[in-house]
Amino acid sequence: MSEKIVHVSTKQRPYDVHVGTELLGEVGAIARDVCAGEAVCVVSDSTVAPLYAGTVLDSLAAAGFDATLVTFPAGERNKRLSTMSDLLEEVAESGLTRDDAIVALGGGVTGDMGGFCAASYLRGIQVVQVPTSLLAMVDSSVGGKVAVDLEHGKNLAGAFWQPSAVIADVDCLASLDHALLTDSCGEVIKHAVLADGYLLDSLTASPLNGTDVDRSRMVDVVTENVGIKRDVVDADETEHGVRQTLNLGHTIGHAVEASSDFSLGHGTCVAIGMCCMARATEALGWSSHEATERITAAVSAHGMPTDTALDHDILFRFATHDKKRHGDGMNVCVARDVEDVVVRRVSLAEFRRLVDLGCGA
């Protein structure tokens, strides 16, 4: 077993992110260190549970927990209030008290569902995030943003609910379909654009979805990404300031994701959004040509699309229902250069121009 630990110091709840190999068998011991209760409900989906729930349940039992398993159908389409209602009923049936905890075992959808369930049940119980996808490890499991989708858009109902611990076992990535691993790389590239130009160039030269990526490099990359997000979240836990820069690529990306009926993965859509926004902001003189080239090169190196052919009216409609809209304007992230990302307020008319300039190029 190898392990690196990143400490997150949010006001709501400080916690450690454990990154390494052979960590699933340590879930019980880590949970015991941070959870005082006697019962734990493992929340997972129909894809991940058959792979890893047994190991996690055994680990929790060995640590003295009364552990039960609740599953829901896998997929972003099931990240809905109707699924959450069923999940809450099953958690209530398991008899958890305010001293007990939920363990969210799975990718980003499961992290959102398990986290939002923990934030809602009995007005809030502890949650331990155990991400099994690269995207969840580097992004969604850290920072406490948990939500479900509504018909009008992605992640429109949710909460800020920090975990008590995050346990990222990169061994789980061996079971990921190559397409899902590729999709996850969108968020890795985003973090590199935000804060680590060296990492961005490394990803372009040697993509994470290649055939020769060893576990030690993956541990290093996940740890570096968690550290980048930690620094932002510690400075702005509830997204009123600098944390909005983590939405780089997301405004157009979420619109692409929702308007494609979630047929495209989140990371792929973030990558598309970054490239589209880079082209548009360069055309307006807000960002450098070098930034556009470096972002596009990293995305292309991982085999992800750099543009979308979706109708601009549809993209605009979905984007303006996003939670980043403020009255008659929107906040958008502009990568003026690599490691130089700012939040800029634009009118809806200006945002429509960004869509027209950047998409379908």
Characterization of this structure:
- There is one protein chain.
- The chain is α/β, with parallel strands linked by helices and 361 residues long.
- The chain folds into two domains: 173 residues, Rossmann fold (3-Layer(aba) Sandwich); 181 residues, Up-down Bundle (Dehydroquinate synthase-like, alpha domain).
- It is built from 13 helices and twelve strands.
- The longest helix has 21 residues.
The gist of it:
Helices cover 45% and strands 22% of the residues. It is built from 13 helices and 12 strands.
User: Helices and strands, in N-to-C order?
Assistant: EEHEHEHEHEHEEEHHHHHHHEEEH
Shape: globular
CATH top level of the largest domain?
Mainly Alpha
What's the architecture of the largest domain in CATH terms?
A: Up-down Bundle
| Beta-strand content bin | 15-25%
Tell me the domain tally: 2
* CATH superfamily placement of the largest domain: Dehydroquinate synthase-like - alpha domain
Number-wise, the strands total: 12
Low-confidence stretches: none
Helix content: 40-55%
Our count of helices gives 13
Q: What is the structural class?
A: alpha/beta
At the fold tier of CATH, the topology name of the largest domain is Dehydroquinate synthase-like, alpha domain
Largest sheet: 7 strands, mixed
**Would you tell me the overall average pLDDT?**
94
List the helices and strands and how they pair.
Elements: E1 3-9, E2 14-20, H1 27-34, E3 39-45, H2 49-62, E4 66-72, H3 81-94, E5 101-106, H4 108-120, E6 126-131, H5 134-140, E7 145-150, E8 153-160, E9 165-169, H6 178-195, H7 197-205, H8 215-235, H9 250-259, H10 266-283, H11 289-301, H12 312-319, E10 325-326, E11 329-337, E12 340-347, H13 348-358
Parallel strand pairs: 2-9, 3-4, 3-5, 5-6, 6-9
Antiparallel strand pairs: 1-2, 7-8, 10-11, 11-12
